[in-house]
Amino acid sequence: MKYTYYPGCSLHSTAEEYNASSQAVFRKIGIEMEELKDWNCCGATSAHSTNDYLAHALPLRNLILAEKQGNDVLVPCAACYNLLKYADYHMRTGGKDSEQLNEDMQEIMGAKYRGSIQVRHVVDVFAEEKVREKISSLLQKPLTGLKVVPYYGCLLTRPFKVVAFEKNPEQPVKLDQLIETLGAECVRWSHKTECCGGSFSISQPELVLKLTRKLVEAAQYAGAEAIVTACPLCQTNLDTRQHTAGGGEGSSIPVFYITELIGIAIGAEGSTNWLKKHLINPVPLLRSLNLLAAS
Length: 295
Description:
The protein is of the alpha/beta class. The chain has two domains: 120 residues, Up-down Bundle (Glutathione S-transferase Yfyf (Class Pi), Chain A, domain 2); 160 residues, Rossmann fold (3-Layer(aba) Sandwich). 49% of the residues lie in helices and 9% in strands. It has a four-stranded parallel sheet with strand order 2-1-3-4, with helices on both faces. It has a four-stranded parallel sheet with strand order 6-5-7-8, sandwiched between helices. It is globular, with a radius of gyration of 19 Å. The two termini are 36 Å apart.
């Protein structure tokens, strides 16, 4: 199995641990990834909120490049996934507007988008039965005793007809299933698809602090010790804003990427390096459960 890997801007900057853990886990599982050659920013979040043409053209360029490499596109970032899926949907259903855009890309790039590939998010791939079975067979350190809530955010499930890979986007379960495969306790809670306000981090920071506070409080009220996500915008938002959001001493909880937890559980190389990049240190929690060796 081979995919064309689209990391997007975040995974080469603020979410380097997501990039490193994703590559380490897929390598350990035996799924080959080839990074998309000459990829560009997908346009999140500025393009899709200011320019409709660029919102489709920027991700479309990546899709055309991916078709040249010949494999389905694997996307870790929920925002990138959302925009690439939306561009693909636009080209398949958009009528004259999409035809004109394809003509423009032919003139610019010397190629059109044919729709011969699929855009996949890492959670969707991990949740395939054969992949989950492979993860289960590789378990070296089941995450027994770790209580976590799955946080999908808003971009993996909305709009349903365009991006959702779940049967019920209001109650997604694939991240839950992965958590349980790793041996951790998947805690039920009320906010798994609520927005963290990521796109408003600069323009409306007070709103984002309010949303962040609600998410953390809901996770703790449910009895969780950590939050697990698959979106670099969500992780960065929750990891950086909990102290500012307030709540008192000891109120902060770690925010993991799902790839980090898979990597720890199957013994993928580099886990201690990933965890060093978190602002809310997850190491004490993991060590208290004997899930991480002392160094």
